[in-house]
Amino acid sequence: MSLKWAINGVLDDIYFMAQGLPRLLFTWKPENQLSILNFFEKNVKKYPNEIAFVFKDQSTTWQEADIKVSQYGAYLQSQGIEKGDCFALLMDNSADFLMLLLAAHRIGAIAALINTTVTGEGLKHVVTIVDAKAAVLGASHLEKFESSMPEAELQSLKLFLVEDSMAVPEGYTDINIAAQSAGEVIPHPLKIKDVAMYIYTSGTTGLPKAALITNGRAVKTSYAGQFFGFKAKQKDVLYLTLPLYHATGLLWSWAGCLRAGATTVIKEKFSASEFWPDVRKHKATMFGYVGELCRYLMNVPPNDDDQNHQLQVISGNGLRPDIWEKFQTRFNIPKIRELYGATEGVGALVNTHGRPGMVGRYMRGSLVVKCDLESGEPIRNSEGYCESVEIGETGLFISKLSKLATFEGYLDKQASNKKIMADVMEDGDAWFNSGDLLTRHENNWLSFADRVGDTYRWKSENVSTMEVAAIINKYPEVLDSNVYGVEVESADGRAGMALMNVTGEFDFEVFSEHVEKNLNAFQRPCFVRIAEEMKTTGTFKHQKEDLKKQGFDPAAIEDKLYFYQKGNYVEIDDSLYQRIQSGEERF
């Protein structure tokens, strides 16, 4: 264990206590009046003529933004949106998105931040479960919204539109025009304990759940984003291309830098080809990431401008060990600060020192406990309690609940209850179950291993999908891979399958050699599916549940499918499929 990382870990603990303890004791009390709107209003007073937002080359000062926030708030109030009411926000990234959210804060309303990729039954679900009284839509989402919602629901909702890539159609209210003559807003001060917004789980399994985001949670996330992630200053420029309906983009990145009065350059949607030109054009000094975003940037062919930028720090989550150092070296990124946490979770971790592959260290109130690595079910000892994993072991990450570390949960109380574990280390205690598997290293450093359910059992062995994907991705012609287990009628457990996006130079023979050399027999994907693009959520998380159900049937899948047979991958036709299912073809 390097002495450098041991010392840095201790310094982390000291810094965390020095920054956080006074706030925990005095500032973040439930009845105190505090929200991210307070940070915005502080910037309006201190930096009225400095740039708050840049969107599509249009700059908005803090003073101009404040005026528009009040106009939005006044208009929403004139339309019957009162303190505690909810309205849905279905828009691509824009300055208007943030100002509408701040307007909700100003009038004490609750904004439900809808994932723009959700449609059909899922869209109907996320709007109805929050009892929204109105919806503010980007015009390009209108058709999808109206086709997804039942007629009765549409009749009861007030619809307001914002021009985006499409103009507002005739017969609909353009909220930007309507708000200009809305009159005076009536502010409603917010308390720490009040619900500020709903942010939805990504929907990688089942329908999305609405996580309750109180002002306290938003403020604490922004605090961590600033003091442990970006450490922004007023003159910094944040390039924001992550979706604003998600916590990493909104609360960790934007709200974290909001505390410093930094300028935010907002990109409507992520574009790998436009990313670095934008960073150079706007002289960005920082950006927020998720790991797959970095992988997409690595897949762009290298060029002479790769290190031509002014970036100082990037912060986010999910940067995998297989590309961490390659990414940092290729683009000359001075500082990478990786975080671990969930929108609704308790007990976030941050690797402030940039140790590759790590998500941080054990913090007070967190544990990694022994569990069944496939099901995630905690293993209890003879006394009925859980036990911490040893160094080098992988287990379930949990966080202790207390008056200071609370779990607000979801609107669905039953779903909330499923996330709480009782009598873990002693009678009467309560812990938040993250559903994630982490590995413990020396000096209590932690790395992300997998999500529960992403580990499958094959040949009597537990297989980590993330570990297998990391090795597959090291083959130069694989751009990205998504590994999961599929059922085979003639075999126990689940056989490994990899959905891959590859270059035109991909060679199955050489790839087979790479797999055989670098993976154990039980880890090697039995099946490979070649796709033009990866199926992901709006926050770039791989979607697996539908893929698991589709399996490897060539009659039901348009993509090319292959089976690992005698040291090489061969294409699956109906005859081979039947032989595999019957057990005639052996693994």
Describe this structure as you would to a colleague.
By secondary structure, the chain is of the alpha/beta class. The chain folds into three domains: 26-351, Rossmann fold, CATH 3.40.50.12780; 362-401 and 411-451, Luciferase, Domain 3 (Luciferase, domain 3, Roll), CATH 2.30.38.10; 457-582, 2-Layer Sandwich (GMP Synthetase, Chain A, domain 3). 32% of the residues lie in helices and 24% in strands. It has 18 helices and 28 strands. An eight-stranded mixed beta sheet has the order 2-1-11-10-12-13-14-15. The chain has a seven-stranded mixed beta sheet with strand order 7-6-5-3-4-8-9. Strands 16, 17, 18, 19, 20 and 21 form a six-stranded antiparallel beta sheet that branches. Helix 3 (62-78) packs across helix 4 (95-107) and helix 9 (215-230) crosses helix 10 (247-258). The longest helix is centred in the N-terminal third of the chain and has 25 residues, at 3-27. It is globular. 44% of the residues are buried. The model has no long low-confidence stretch (mean pLDDT 90).
Task: Offer a concise description of the structure.
The protein is an alpha/beta fold. 32% of the residues lie in helices and 24% in strands.
The overall pLDDT, averaged over residues, is 90
Q: Show unreliable segments.
A: none
- In total, the number of domains comes to 3
SS elements, strand count: 28
- Taken as a percent bin, the fraction of beta residues is 15-25%
Percent helix: 25-40%
CATH H-tier superfamily of the largest domain: ANL, N-terminal domain
Enter the CATH topology name of the largest domain. Answer: Rossmann fold
Instruction: Count every helix, treating DSSP H or I runs of 4 or more residues as helices.
Output: 18
Largest sheet: 8 strands, mixed
Distance between the termini: 40 Å
Content-based structural category? alpha/beta
Overall spatial form = globular
Radius of gyration: 25 Å
Strand order of the largest sheet: 2-1-11-10-12-13-14-15
Please give the CATH architecture of the largest domain.
3-Layer(aba) Sandwich
